[in-house]
């Protein structure tokens, strides 16, 4: 009789294997977000960014974050870049966002983005970009200049999301 109680109890506390897979994926996602946050914080601390309106921590969860230096060379790309573009972070570092552009990319929108960068003002645009495999995707970009606590421009940051 005690054996039956043991079997009954062990079934009540069992968790399907599939649940562990979801849990593992969730933990990996959290680790990636934490790693991204650590990298961005290092840049932020090094250049003493004024992070007041950036909301990086919240946005890292749902968007791809790309940080460029003043020459528009990518110095940071969050882990989501691989999912959206097919490129790993190390493949985009040191390159410019031009690497995601191609024939279907609107010249007008690019001109508007360049103008906003030149004027050092935030912008929000949707653009046709290219994945590593050559397929296109619509990318909503919310970009902004990043200033240090002395008011000097140090970087540009873009929060990007694929849209339908």
TrEMBL record:
Keyword Flavoprotein in annotation: yes
Domain PAC: 121-164
Recorded superkingdom: Bacteria
Keyword Transmembrane helix: no
PANTHER family associated with the record: PROTEIN TWIN LOV 1 (PTHR47429)
Keywords assigned by UniProt, alphabetized: Chromophore, Flavoprotein, FMN
Source organism of this protein record: Flavobacterium bizetiae
Record-linked Pfam families: PAS_9
SUPFAM superfamilies the record matches: PYP-like sensor domain (PAS domain) (SSF55785)
Name under which the protein is recorded: PAS domain-containing protein
Domain PAS: start-end pairs: 65-120
Family matches, as PROSITE patterns: PAC, PAS
InterPro entries per the UniProt record, alphabetical: PAS, PAS-assoc_C, PAS-like_dom_sf
CDD domains: PAS
